[in-house]
Design brief:
The protein is mostly beta strands. It has 3 domains: about 110 residues, Nuclear Transport Factor 2, Chain: A, CATH 3.10.450.40; about 120 residues, Nuclear Transport Factor 2, Chain: A, CATH 3.10.450.40; about 375 residues, Distorted Sandwich (Beta-galactosidase, Chain A, domain 5), CATH 2.70.98. It contains 11 helices and 34 strands. The longest helix has 22 residues. Keywords: Copper, Membrane, Metal-binding, Oxidoreductase, TPQ, Transmembrane, Transmembrane helix. It is an enzyme of class 1 (oxidoreductase). Belongs to the copper/topaquinone oxidase family.
Length: about 750
């Protein structure tokens, strides 16, 4: 051996190390950037077909407004400044065509349905003020409009049922500050240190006790961050039923447990020393205890999810494709996020899945709290959908979709990043097995699902709406509640109605109910409803007749009528209840999709209540009815302000019609009871406040469709599980050792406020 050879090798190695070091330094010592790979997406459905469900574009909304301004023959005032006595366009949304018409287009040779809009107008400047709904079309250049109010509701909609516009809230604020409060200057100055900027008002609904009322309690809070938990003890009842704002008047005043005729009487009692004053400590502008500002310094960054080879889903306008899934999505002004034409492996499993309503019923010993029944659809779950913050509301690298809406205005508004779509690794197996008996192997599948999400902020509450698509053909609808709890001023026997959250703050007990419409089409439009469950039977052991065995057996029942398929809120419901197709799988079973509900709802308001029929959908955890075009929703935006004569009564949908081999709809109600507690300060967390439902294949396939997923892992004891071709997890150091391209953080949530 040449004695110089080791030195030559050492020098050569040093040169190689130097070169590699230079290369790393030139890259800043970082891993290479992740590069997108062609995603494997099954092509199901057509993007152009999905547009039949698409939300209106900003230009289409503007075209509808221009058409109505030029063809109704009446002056239309900008809704944002309209008086109750004037005419205005309240909102405009897409008019989804009839299902039969859409299916002919999607599945057959039918023509594309005309694209139309639904416009809701308030006519306050008419001999008989009313609410009128028009269908306007065809878009993009409308040439006709037709009044569909009577067709939809069986008659005209009285004007007092109209949801309040932002302009009416502003007019009420001005009334309270300039007229109502002017009658009690001493009380306001000395007790509330009132300076016209330091109080905030929260409205309550419904407005009164009988049809025609428009009388509202306004609860007064300190005007600080998180004001919902800073009550000052003052509440004012305003009668604003007159279309002439100069006729508005204070009907009653409440302060610290006592009622007064008006603000003047409150002032007089205070000046004479006949009031028990409970002065609230003035909070800092950030709300002090209600501040959302972090109390801890920054530390190590939380885990971040990324896709090392790019997204494995596609978003094409209003259509999403993910592995075997495809669906169209949209955002209704009143009901929020909704899905249409949901298919798996190319076959439609549901025509529509949509939120219908979110209801809260409050208790308190203060008038505003005890009379509150929020029906958030009337405020607008879509209208109040908020821009999403990347990295918190959704994964940072999710796909963000802008939406447009037209409400309270003549001009459409863009809400940037108001929907997010992402694939989510749940960090657990969808299925797995480790075998250490007989053969030795491991088989598993990562539980990675697609999520489409929006978040609606309606007053104090934030609702996180999710629809989740799993690789085994299951769909989940889920809502998580967060935001601030509503509160009352703590006095007297207040602790009968909640828990004390701060010095003067009573977190008031309330229920949350959420209603969904699920129009399943399992193996076709015609389905039946079938219940499977279990019962124990006693039998003698055949091999030992003197011994008795208790064994569970399967029970089966076809639910033939709507009455049989209406399950009351707290009643027992079959553990397996499913929509059954007219076709069978390979093993001779009816193909089906099972409905599984997750809920811990409080009690429904007593049916003897004068307003119960307006929310009668909440009587039922599940009700299955025949699908009818004239029953498109379980409630109405007009029910909130006249629940005593509801515009839509869900209970009337259930009339014992046969539901065997029919086009069926499942109306699902889920919810939870919320008794606010000290951990709801500064505000409520989503943990434990999540409810919803699952739609799961039940003999729909011949085997679990996720076996065809590209994410499966399998290796035996005899294989080299460190080899990429055997085990894809062994490739992670190579395929996932890259840096994702994080775009700069942006947020448009505070624009045009």
């Amino acid at each position: 051996m040449n004695p110089k050879l080791p030195y030559v090798l050492l020098v050569g190695a040093a040169v190689i190390i130097f070169i590699l070091s230079c290369m790393l330094l030139s890259r800043g010592g970082q891993s290479p950037s992740c590069e997108s790979q062609p995603s494997v997406v099954e092509k199901t459905g057509s993007m152009s077909q999905s547009l039949v469900f698409a939300d209106l574009t900003a230009e289409e909304m503007s075209q509808v407004v221009r058409y109505l301004q030029g063809h109704l023959g009446v002056p239309l005032v900008e809704a944002s400044r309209a008086k109750p006595s004037e005419n205005c366009i309240a909102w405009v949304d897409v008019q989804v065509p009839a299902k039969a018409e859409v299916l002919r287009f999607l599945d057959g040779s039918g023509a594309r349905p005309p694209r139309e809009a639904l416009a809701v107008l308030y006519f306050g400047n008419q001999p008989e003020p009313n609410i009128t709904e028009y269908v306007v079309g065809p878009l993009p250049v409308p040439v006709y409009h037709r009044d569909v109010t009577v067709q939809r509701y069986g008659g005209k909609v009285p004007y007092h049922r109209r949801p309040m516009l932002g302009s009416e809230y502003e007019q009420l604020r001005v009334f309270l500050e300039t007229k109502a409060f002017a009658a009690a200057p001493t009380f306001l100055r000395e007790v509330l240190e009132y300076d016209r900027t330091n109080v905030a008002f929260q409205t309550t609904v419904p407005h009164g006790f009988q049809s025609g009322d428009r009388v509202t309690w306004f609860v007064v809070f300190q005007n600080v961050s998180g004001f919902f938990v800073h009550p000052v003890g003052l509440e004012v009842l305003v009668d604003h039923s007159s279309l002439d704002t100069s006729q508005w008047a204070v009907s009653r005043v409440f302060y610290n447990g006592q009622y007064y005729r008006d603000m003047a009487q409150l002032e007089s009692a205070y000046v004479q020393g006949r009031i028990s004053v409970e002065k609230v400590r003035k909070a800092a502008w950030d709300g002090d205890f209600s501040s959302m500002k972090p109390r801890a310094p920054r530390a190590a960054l939380f885990p971040v999810q990324f896709e090392p080879q790019g997204p494995r889903y596609k978003v094409r306008k209003n259509q999403v494709l993910f592995q075997g899934w495809s669906f169209a999505f949209g955002m209704s002004v009143s009901t929020g996020l909704r899905l249409f034409d949901i298919r798996h492996k190319g076959e439609r499993v549901a025509y529509e899945i949509s939120v219908q309503e979110a209801l809260s019923v409050y208790g308190s010993n203060c008038p505003g709290g005890m009379s509150t029944r929020y029906m958030d659809g009337s405020f607008g779950l879509g209208r109040y959908t908020s821009p999403l913050v990347p990295g918190v509301d959704c994964p940072y690298l999710a796909t963000y979709v802008d939406t447009h809406s037209l409400s309270d205005s003549l001009r459409p508004r863009k809400r940037k990043a108001s929907i997010c779509i992402f694939e989510h690794n749940l960090g657990s197996p969808l299925r797995r097995h480790y075998s250490n008996l007989q053969s030795l192997y491991y088989g598993g599948l990562v539980n990675s699902a697609l999520v489409i999400r929006s978040i609606a902020t309606v007053g104090n509450y934030d609702y996180v709406w999710d629809f989740i698509f799993y690789q085994n053909g299951a769909i989940e609808g889920k809502v998580q509640a967060t935001g601030y709890p509503s509160s009352s001023f703590l006095h007297g026997d207040g602790l009968r109605y909640g828990n004390r959250l701060w010095e003067h703050t009573l977190g008031t007990i309330h229920t949350h109910f959420v209603n969904y419409k699920v129009d399943l089409d399992v193996g076709g439009v015609k389905n039946s409803l079938v219940a499977h469950d279990m019962a124990f039977e006693m039998t003698r052991a055949p091999w030992s007749p003197e011994q008795q065995i208790e064994r569970p057996r399967l029970t089966k029942k076809v639910l033939d009528t709507e009455d049989q398929a209406a399950f009351r809120l707290q009643s027992k419901i079959p553990r397996y209840i499913y929509f059954a197709a007219n076709s069978k799988n390979k093993w001779g079973h009816q193909r089906g999709y099972r409905i599984q509900i997750t809920s811990f709802a409080g009690d429904h308001i007593p049916e003897a209540s004068s307003m119960e029929r307006a929310i009668s959908w909440a009587r039922y955890q599940l009700a299955v009815t025949r699908r009818k075009e004239e029953e498109p929703t379980s409630t109405s935006i007009y029910n909130q302000n006249d629940p005593w004569t509801p515009t839509v009564t869900f209970a009337d949908f259930i009339n014992n019609e046969t539901i065997t081999n029919e086009d069926l709809v499942a109306w699902i109600t889920t919810g939870f009871l919320h008794i606010p507690h000290s951990e709801d300060i500064p505000n409520t967390v989503t943990v434990g406040n999540s409810v919803g439902f699952l739609l799961r294949p039940y003999n729909y396939y011949d085997l679990d469709p996720s076996v065809y997923s590209h994410d499966g892992v399998f290796f035996t004891s005899e294989q080299d599980f460190t080899a990429c071709e055997i085990n894809p997890l062994a490739c992670l150091p190579k395929t996932a050792s890259c840096l994702p391209n994080f775009p700069p953080f942006t947020y448009d949530g505070f624009r045009n406020m």
